[in-house]
Amino acid sequence: MSNTDHTPDAPLDLAAERARLARAEAEYAALKGAVVRGELVPRERVGLMVAAYIERVRGEMMAQIDAMAPRLPAATEAEFEAMFTDAVIEALKELPPDDGPIAA
């Protein structure tokens, strides 16, 4: 049993406890600093950001379907493939770049 075990019979090592507290405070300060600098965000916010991004992708894709629909009956398979490819590329261009943060 080590001196940092917190059982009633274990002797308390004040130096070890102070060191443990100092490490915990340093870790807390580092995490808090990362949040302030924008390097870390709460899990809930990440979930909301991802959901918003997925909804935006869905909206862009649905808009492309609506724009393509009137032209489809007369399209050949090759024309359809070209239209679909162009529509997907256009929808993706409307999304934020992959090298930056996603705004919620």
SSE inventory with pairings:
Elements: H1 14-36, H2 43-68, H3 77-93
Helix pairs in contact: 2-3
Q: Percent helix among the residues?
A: 55-70%
Query: H/E order of the elements?
Result: HHH
What is the strand content?
under 5%
Q: For the record, give the distance between the C-alpha atoms at the N and C termini, rounded to a whole number.
A: 49 Å
Which structural class should the secondary elements be placed in?
mainly alpha
Overall tally of domains: 2
Form type: rod-shaped
List the total number of helices.
3
Unreliable residue stretches: none
Give me the count of strands.
Answer: 0
In short:
This protein has helices at residues 14-36, 43-68, 77-93. With 104 residues, it is mainly α. The chain is rod-shaped and about 85 Å long.
Describe what this molecule looks like in 3D.
The protein is mainly alpha-helical and 104 residues long. The two termini are 49 Å apart. The mean pLDDT is 81. The chain has 3 helices and no strands. Helix 2 packs antiparallel against helix 3. It folds into 2 domains: 40 residues; 51 residues.
